[in-house]
Design a protein that fits this description.
Shape: rod-shaped
Structural class: alpha+beta
Radius of gyration: 27 Å
Number of strands: 5
Order of helices and strands: HHHHEEEEE
Strand content: 15-25%
Oligomer: single chain
Strand order of the largest sheet: 1-2-3-5-4
Number of helices: 4
Largest sheet: 5 strands, mixed, barrel
């Protein structure tokens, strides 16, 4: 097996590792290995120089490519309670304290607690900001 083939195998190995641990680290190493393999196929250079090129390219990809790839990773779609209730306004039906309270939203009654543990009077309008199980965390508007 020639050295350029070893670089290709190493690149495939890094891609497999990236698929099992999606941290966008090993992908940079895979790109570097494949590029060094291509260079080694067309240009007869020493193994020391190939390793140096691999190291420099890996660092460059980590510094410049990885931040770009991290930005384009999409946030997963909100589903369930997050999609339906977060950000919605609700009416306090029972005074909210740090231990009790109820709200009405979409014609449904939910247990609720204040985001900052302050009491919110019945009839107040609140916004749902989070949830803990079946308890909505709200803030007064």
């Amino acid at each position: 097996m020639e050295i350029w083939q070893l670089w290709g195998v190493l690149g495939i190995f890094f891609i497999i590792i990236e698929m099992t641990t999606p941290v966008l680290f090993f992908l940079n190493l895979a790109f570097s290995a494949v590029i060094v393999g291509i260079i080694a196929y067309y240009v007869n250079i020493s193994l020391t120089l190939q390793i140096t090129i691999f190291a420099v390219m890996s660092i460059m990809f980590l510094v410049f490519l990885r931040p770009f790839l991290m930005k384009i990773k999409e946030e997963p779609d909100k589903t369930g309670v997050k999609a339906a209730y977060y950000g919605q306004q609700a009416t306090v039906t029972e005074r909210i304290t740090d231990k009790t309270g109820r709200i009405a939203v979409f014609g449904e009654a939910w247990d609720a607690r204040s985001e900052d543990n302050q009491s919110i009077e019945e009839g107040a309008i609140v916004q749902i900001v989070n949830s803990q199980g079946l308890v909505m965390i709200v803030k007064k508007i």
